[in-house]
Design brief:
The structure is a single chain. The protein is an alpha+beta fold. It has 3 helices and 6 strands, in the order βαααβββββ. α1 packs across α2.
Length: 93
């Protein structure tokens, strides 16, 4: 039902974060998220390896946030866009 680009595939493979793709796709079951045609997903990792995922509507308005108790994601921060069922890197827009 959902797809992702080659750039997202590369990120998932190199950062070992297929879990992040699953997280975006599985949370489409939340109505407040799924009714947004343009979604911005931001993952921010703290020094203690906890993380926050913030979902925005593309206009800077927060729709939902999630707290992760642990992640081994290698970057401090990443943003992904989910547009009409396709997950992309912002640079691929």
């Amino acid at each position: 039902k959902f797809r992702y680009t080659e750039g997202v595939k590369y990120l998932a493979r190199e950062a070992n974060c297929y879990w992040l793709l699953d997280y975006v796709f599985s949370n489409q079951a939340i109505k407040a998220i799924s009714e947004q045609p343009f979604q911005v997903w931001k993952l921010k990792v703290a020094e203690d390896h906890t993380a926050t995922i913030i979902v925005e509507d593309g206009n800077g308005n927060q729709v939902k946030s999630f707290q992760l108790t642990f992640t081994d994601f290698p970057l401090e921060e990443i943003g992904l866009w989910f547009i009409e069922g396709i997950l992309i890197l912002p640079s691929e827009y």
